Amino acid sequence: MASANSKRLGFFWGEDRITVVEFDKNAPVKVIVSPLGSKSSAASPFSSNLTEEIQITAMLQKMLKDNAITGGSFYVSLPMKEIILRSFMIPFVKTEDIQNAIKFEARKYMPFDIQDISFVYHATPVGEGPGKRLQVIFYAARKEALDRYDRIFKQIKAEGAYFEPYMVSLSKSLLFQKEITPTDHVAFLTLDNALGRICFIDKGIPQFNREFSIKSAPSADENADANETLNSKIINEVGNSFDFYARQFNGERIEKMLIVSDFVQMGLLNSLETELKVKIKKYSPVVTTGIEGQSNDMGAVYALGACVAPPMDSLAGFNFIGDKKNKPSYGDGVVNPLGSYKELIGVLLACVVALAGGYFVIQLLLKTPKLQYDQLSAKGGVFSSESTDNIKAELQDNIDKLTQLKSIRTESDLTKVLFKVASHLPKGAKLSSLTVNYDQNGPNNAQITIEMSGSVFNDDPNEEFAAVDQIFSDFKNDKDLSKYVNAVHLGPLQRQTLNGRQITGFTIQCT
How many angstroms separate the Cα of 72 from the Cα of each of 125, 165, 166, 215? Predict the structure, then answer.
């Protein structure tokens, strides 16, 4: 990363505009915003990724030229459409095993091949003793998207030096402007004409992000009933988000919420404060950047955050193209290395050689006793020196093993489990993966683990969330299933697009 006093160009490519923030001597110098204009229809022969790249390149080049901006590398805040955010638990493994453990677990949640993405993460120890685990906040971006930005910058003879999720840029910007502190537990709510987006930040680290649809913002001549209906919908969606965050994450209780919107009225702020029991503050991106700009232009906030040097160590490791060997350490001495495959192969080869050498040495040591044993057996028989007590003990051991074999779980038990899983899936729910594992260390494989992921589709997003909650509740309260599992956990929900439709993805783990 460049030094704190060198020029940087923050860049955010939003849905309808691109924003550039010139940042020099640890302060923003100017903000440039350029609308993208209307997009071509997907069916148009002039609509393609290449065409869009050419347009963005020309627009960016003109923005820099018109504002006499030269020099400086680009620090990119990647928008939501380019980011995959997941949260999951892994065992508390050794430092050198963290990278591989996270990569193995992340495969369950990725809609793409793990080789096609670049990822960063933050890991926090949870619990103590044998039950100690790591909670992982996992961000991923497709390498194809990163390459696209790189091509655009190269066309204007510049380079992309830093690529981070926009949620991280938001946290850095808020810390830089002293809107929050490194110890705060906050939520940040953005409301525009059609969409709400809420981000939960715990001690500077974005933990959970959720989008929800709202109708168009009310105009001045709409009646009070329409405003009340909209306010009720917003309060309900925000409340659902708070409930989900409280269930799934181990962070402290949210203390305050910042809201940015150009149509929110004081009545909604008061209602949210009463309902959620948190301090509410209306937030202005113009104040945050310290520069005159368009009202409610969150793109400037994200671009500014990308330029800011990490205000705390835990925010220093979120560069998708950075050297991950230099990632900061995480609590309790846990670090986040990129394991060296060459070193791993060397260790494995050394182990193989050592095992092979040990095997041949043992064979040589056993050769003489074996010859002596063969000679004695030829004279007196194999059991000539075996005592009666030893024979009885071996017989009892075989009887015990036979008893265990008779009580091993049969296929019919697995059939019951699969039938239970199917019976709890309502109409519109679809499983994409299902894994059933037996506890090989338990008595007679008495305990099983069920891991499943799937999606729910409904025309009403609220119905989708309700369906997932019902699935989770059915699994949790199933008395027959409780014979095989002790606990049921619901993973983070994720809004996804499948064949042009919005669906809600879910994961459930029974242990």
Answer: 38, 20, 20, 41
